[in-house]
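Lab notes, practical 5.
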Amino acid sequence: MEVEQAQFLAIGIIFTINSMVGLAPVLLKGNLPDVIVPQTQTRNRLLSAASCFGAGVFLFVCFMGLLPDADHKFHHFLEDIKRYDEEWTTFTEFPWAFFVVTVGFLSIFTLDKMIHAVEHSRKGGQDGLAHFRRQLPPVESSKKDGDAEKSLIGKDCVHHHDDEDEGHGVPSSVIFLVALGIHSVFEGMAVGLQTQTEKVMELGVAVFVHEVVMAFTFGMEVSRSNTLSRIYKVVYVVVFSATIPLGVAIGFGLQNAPSDHRDIISAVFEAFATGIFVHVIFIEVLSHEFSGHHHHGGHHAGGKDSEGERTSPSETYLILEKVSFICLGLLTLIMLSIFLHHHHH
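Output from the prediction step:
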């Protein structure tokens, strides 16, 4: 399979599946059987497993795929500069690929926090903050061990409350769509910038796993709005589903543009996208997944309050379960990479 074919296949699969998954809560609201949407605790547990699996997949793609590839592209470009003029030696020895990755991470981190601040300001008070920032640890003294598993996964699940009737208005929905859309566009760009079929397949799997979880939770979020008509909800979901194909198309266009600076542009965008992946892994997924397992006074089994307290069995099980799915995601991509390289050669 050619690279272009793999990229267009990724576009078709991701857009189709994301649209179906995202539209399901919108079109079938109130009619979804428990088999499809199980009880809250079970559903959140499944989303948690999928999110952790996706984090493991992203760990492989980020540190064993995108980062080495971006560094190689920068190295090739900087070596050409060095050969052209040795006076640029000091400039070329700086780790520019890692610098751009850092810039990408800080840019999306800042944007993420600014969006949180805007939403908090719009909502006003602690209700808005609690509604938009699920990563804050629980403080209720009556919280039972194991309740942490009721938290939804990743930033894309921040807004869910089972007893919430008001839903989001258009401003919140737009903010939510823009925030997730920017992430998705850059994830798609990373796929479009690849020049090897196996890299497209590896990255496509990673993006697919993450985006399916995001599409479902985005659909759940939009379906809760009482101010949006059903047609607008459908439009929101379809627009969100189109962000990955848009990113792939942009990346493909940059990679194939007839320009003398095509290689360095591709390297810069790939490194920037790598910074986005770092943010997704550590800020949006892992920090949220494990934030509910921190201990606070009075929350431990048996009511002990000494420094020698042990983690309750339920929390230990949940932590090990999440770590296991992270490792499973990492192992899956390792095996896929070995298979694709073997098949290619």
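Observations recorded by the TA: Residues 3-31+43-136+155-292+317-344 form one domain. The chain has a mean pLDDT of 75.
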